[in-house]
UniProtKB/TrEMBL annotation:
A Pfam family annotated for this UniProt entry: ABC_tran
Chain ranges of the ABC transporter domain: 2-218
InterPro entries given in the database record: AAA+_ATPase, ABC_transporter-like_ATP-bd, ABC_transptr_haem_export_CcmA, P-loop_NTPase
Single Gene Ontology MF annotation: transmembrane transporter activity
SMART domains from the UniProt entry: AAA
Organism lineage: Bacteria, Pseudomonadati, Pseudomonadota, Alphaproteobacteria, Emcibacterales
GO biological process: cytochrome complex assembly
Alphabetical list of SUPFAM superfamilies matching this protein: P-loop containing nucleoside triphosphate hydrolases
Source species, domain of life: Bacteria
Organism from which the protein derives: Emcibacter nanhaiensis
Transmembrane segment boundaries: none
Gene3D superfamilies reported for this sequence: P-loop containing nucleotide triphosphate hydrolases
Annotated protein name in UniProt: Heme ABC exporter ATP-binding protein CcmA
Protein's UniProt keywords contain Kinase: no
Length: 220
């Protein structure tokens, strides 16, 4: 269970959101919606430990986040707007590097097949198209053993087939007991009972609560 209670995040002198709360059980995705600038990336970065929280707290399995780097590396898989691939390494080498770092080394072939990039294994990352680069970053993510996936606009550059592959990969992660927080402007194709929508646009600066749970359900 990932929980946020009374969260307030500030960028510069701008309060992005205040009093934001949610409770996300394993097996579910929290889908962040809202217009540009409403705070989706800010919330994801705060969960990833990359931005300080001005007020409130985050908790995992009942324990408040401490910001410990080893814990974050082990439990949180963060995909930002940029793919962060090493351009001189091949697709396979990029994925293998990540898999060695995060502990799932036997999943490389399966991850490449799941994202439809098995034919690109020997291609240096600097020669990938935009969508191929994104698919490589997503395959790398599949090799992370962490339960918490943070995906900031994961579909950027993806064609329709790749979006379906991403949806399948996300569903598998949820089936394994993982959970996902993702910002997106498009429908990811997740089953309705697997996702909870949090619209930051309605609540930025005023407090935000997942729209299909009542307050008492969130905190009971
Ligand atoms: N370093 C910064 N200093 C000051 N304000 C910032 C900084 N970074 C972001 N902001 C502001 O914080 C607010 C939230 O930005 P954020 O990137 O979280 O929005 P978003 O919902 O992810 O937007 P988008 O849909 O465009 O990706 C915006 O108003 C933005 O201008």
């Amino acid at each position: 269970m990932l929980e946020a209670n009374g969260l307030c995040c500030v960028r510069g002198d701008f309060t992005v959101f205040t009093d934001l709360g949610f409770s996300l059980p394993r097996g579910k995705a929290l889908v962040l919606r809202g217009p540009n600038g409403s705070g989706k990336s800010t919330l994801i970065k705060a969960i990833a430990g990359l931005l300080p929280v001005r007020a409130g707290f985050l908790a995992w399995e009942g324990e408040a986040f401490t910001g410990d780097g080893d814990w974050i590396a082990e439990n949180i898989c963060y995909l930002a707007h940029k793919n962060a691939l090493k351009p001189e390494l091949t697709v396979r080498e990029n994925i293998a590097f990540w898999a060695r770092l995060h502990g799932v080394e036997d999943g490389i072939d399966g991850a490449m097949a799941a994202l439809g990039i098995d034919h690109l294994g020997d291609q240096p990352a600097r020669y990938l198209s935009s969508g191929q680069g994104r698919r490589t970053a997503l395959a790398r993510m599949v090799c992370h053993r962490g339960a918490i996936w943070l995906l900031d606009e994961p579909t950027v550059g993806l064609d329709q087939d790749s979006v379906q592959r991403l949806s399948a990969v996300m569903t598998s992660h949820l089936d394994r007991g993982g959970l996902i927080v993702t910002a997106t402007h498009i429908d990811l194709g997740l089953a309705r009972d697997r996702s909870i929508v949090l619209d930051l646009g309605q609540f930025s600066g005023k407090g935000a609560v997942a729209d299909d749970w009542s307050l008492s359900e969130v905190w009971s």
